[in-house]
Amino acid sequence: MDKYTIYSNKVELNWNAKGNERILQNITNLLNTYTNEVAYNRKMGRNSDNIDRPAPVMIGAVIEETYDLIQEYEPRVNILDVEYMGMEDDIPVLRVVLQLE
Questions:
Q1: Angle 19-31/55-73 helices, nearest 10 degrees?
Q2: pLDDT of residue 45
């Protein structure tokens, strides 16, 4: 199985994505969606309250919710690693390494 690395701050949409590219794009969308943004699934997405927490708590919460989001909404991947890279425009940047099933 091939390994893929996704950065949450690298968003490039391909409206014609298919196959593996579509799955990877789904992960990117999950990393950049907050609760209440999806009209028919208000619970899907990140908890924006985590951003206002103290850094050590925020980092742990954001990493944990990343695992939970991907496992729930994109079960076709195996998460190998999630790493907090820092903040960009007051939003946490994550590096996610995964394999497609």
A1: 150
A2: 92
